[in-house]
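Page 37, continued from 36.
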């Protein structure tokens, strides 16, 4: 009977978290395609058996690097969208939050946008569907404000979404921790730009 891999290491860190942390560090430093499974398990201090117990492949690790951030962002967006507050406040909060959570996970964002093309067609399709759900919920907030007359309808909601997320997706190319702006300051300025674009 095969031994079941331990779920934690000596200090109590769950093995899946160790593997993800090691993979994220290596993918960010070397690139997904130049990182081997052997290097990941050595960095995590586990066996290949442990990796394949929790993740079916290196491809699964790449997908999870991005999916874990998107899950958090989706939960937070849903909470903002469902809140009992004026539409302008809800959209501004959502627009700022996606900036902060992206900056908080810059390595993940950089890895994803640099390496998404390495995903299998099935995983690629899954990621696109997950991102589409997020963007559709965000767009629904803009459309709600446009229907209420709070936001201008001069620019289609789809284009406004692309405008904001174009900025978000490029954060990993220029934002540096310790720079002149804090994550919240960047988030506030980008959210303000979005709302100015929607002003009637």
């Amino acid at each position: 009977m095969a031994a079941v891999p331990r779920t934690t290491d000596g200090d109590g860190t769950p093995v899946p978290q160790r593997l993800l942390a090691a993979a994220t560090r290596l993918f960010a430093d070397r690139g997904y395609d130049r990182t081997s499974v052997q290097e990941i398990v050595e960095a995590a201090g586990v066996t290949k058996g442990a990796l394949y117990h929790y993740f079916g492949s290196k491809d699964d690790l790449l997908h999870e690097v991005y999916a874990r951030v998107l899950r958090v962002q989706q939960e937070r967006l849903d909470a903002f969208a469902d809140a009992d507050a004026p539409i302008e406040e809800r959209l501004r909060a959502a627009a700022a939050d996606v900036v902060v959570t992206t900056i908080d996970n810059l390595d993940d964002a950089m890895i994803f946008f640099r390496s998404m093309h390495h995903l299998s067609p099935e995983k690629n399709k899954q990621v696109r569907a997950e991102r589409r759900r997020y963007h559709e919920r965000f767009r629904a907030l803009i459309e709600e404000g446009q229907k209420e007359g709070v936001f201008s309808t001069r620019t289609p909601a789809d284009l406004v979404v692309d405008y904001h997320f174009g900025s978000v997706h490029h954060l990993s190319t220029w934002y540096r921790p310790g720079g002149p702006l804090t994550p919240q300051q960047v988030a506030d300025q980008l959210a303000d730009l979005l709302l100015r674009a929607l002003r009637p």
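Confidence is low (pLDDT under 50) at residues 1-9. Flag for discussion at group meeting. The chain is about 70% helix and 0% strand.
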